[in-house]
Design goal:
Layout (H helix, E strand, L loop, with lengths): L2 H21 L2 H5 L2 E8 L9 E2 L1 H14 L4 E8 L5 E9 L6 E9 L5 E7 L7
Parallel strand pairs: 1-6
Antiparallel strand pairs: 1-2, 3-4, 4-5, 5-6
């Protein structure tokens, strides 16, 4: 595959990743991850890292079980680096303002997610 094909594949994976979250399809969601994948939260420090497919599955199963359904709007963009994809999420919880989150997805050569860096605005609102 050339770089553009890798970019396109990885962008499509991110779109399918969030569709599996909308559908709350944990079986599908897990298929996108490398077994050693991790989700990191740089604004929360290293203690907030979830690492390994079993831990990722458990945290996401709990999220699906405890959070009411919510909207996920995604704007997905490829980086020049074909192994990384940026996504701006707008989460819509009933009765709350839209909550933006920014994520950088990292992929291995096989197109599996090795890391999702999730960042939020930690500043005080107006």
């Amino acid at each position: 595959m050339d770089d553009q094909q890798v970019r396109d594949r990885n962008v499509e994976t991110v779109r399918r990743f969030y569709q599996s979250e909308r559908d709350r399809d944990l079986s599908m969601w897990v298929t996108f991850w490398h077994s050693d994948g991790r989700q990191t939260f740089p604004t929360m420090g290293s203690a907030a890292t979830v690492a390994g497919i079993d831990a990722l599955r458990a945290v996401t199963a709990e999220k699906f079980a405890t959070r009411p359904p919510y909207g996920i709007g995604d704007r997905v963009s490829a980086f020049a680096d074909p192994r990384r994809v940026f996504v701006h999420l707008d989460l819509e919880f009933p009765g709350s303002p839209v909550f933006p989150i920014w994520c950088v997805f990292h992929f291995d050569d096989d197109g599996l997610v090795t890391e999702v860096e999730e960042m939020v605005d930690t500043g005080a609102g107006a």
